[in-house]
Amino acid sequence: MQIQAAVLREKAQPFRVETVEIDTPQAGEVLVRIVGAGICHTDMVIRDLLYPPPLPSVLGHEGAGVVEQVGPGVRKVQPGDHVVLSFQFCGGCVNCQQGHPAYCDNFFAHNLGGVRADGTTTLCNGHGPVYGSFFGQSSFATYALATERNVVKVRQDAPLELLGPLGCGIQTGAGAVLNSLQARAGTSIAIFGSGSVGLSAVMAARVAGCTTIIAVDINPARLQLAGELGATHIIHSGKNDPVEKIRQITGSGADYSLETTAQPNVFRQAVDSLRSRGVCGLIGAAAPGTEVSFDMTTILAGRTLLGVMEGDSVPDIFIPRLVDLFMQGRFPIDRLVTFYELNEINRAMEDSEQGRTVKPILRMGGA
Length: 367
Known about the structure:
2 domains; alpha/beta; 11 helices; seven-stranded mixed sheet; Quinone Oxidoreductase, Chain A, domain 1
């Protein structure tokens, strides 16, 4: 079947919307008509670093849409179901078996290899293969081939075009608070970075009942939005020492902190802002080889550093919970979103990189 897709043909170059051919669903696969696909920071990192997908590639890993067709053996969904597409995992390694699919031993092969597990591609054109299967979906397209494992059925009364970012960025920020840190009611949390991940963490901290929620950023508009979404305090880190300000606000340091920027100096601040026995969650994905240093006595004081992938989420369980919270008005993800058409993908990415847009979502209706 012919579809429209945003194809990356050269490293660090613009995407081009082209006609490509998508395969029919094989055993365990699900063909989804994409309604909306969020743009995540990871898409832009892969575009610029091109590690490891080959070219030409179709990226996109925050898709939401309607099931059109299922392959042999699929039982979880059927045509007509509304779904959010999340990350792919093997289901058989120790971490998957223990209920931690985000730490799948085969995560990179399944999500960044550009091919199915058997080495075949899901996309092609008249010149040869187009590499897809990005996070088990490649959703910068009008249709995507996912698998039964990484499609999540959601309620049909929720606005589907809004839900794609729940598959990665929003579930990462919210899950860091609710699943990884398991933040308790009445506690304090400092969130470094007020992009879509950090703002999702702010909203989740409010859901969790944290009574001191501190947002740290250098973008005044995003800090204002953080305050509207539940932050009790905001700190402009370009004008203030965030560690000093957090200690003034909390008395002895925050119970929890989150680092979402992938900047080593910010990570150091997030750790230094903790009280003794506090926990810092690292979400920001830095380039391989990036190093950070700490005063060893800081860690000796019972502080914990915790790496967080995909918000420690089991998507089939966590994403429907977030949808319910949104429908109840308790998790207003619509406040983060700006919509673009598929052929506006490069402008959407630029707006995101320049801080003009918090969470871009590509709509496929005009593709």
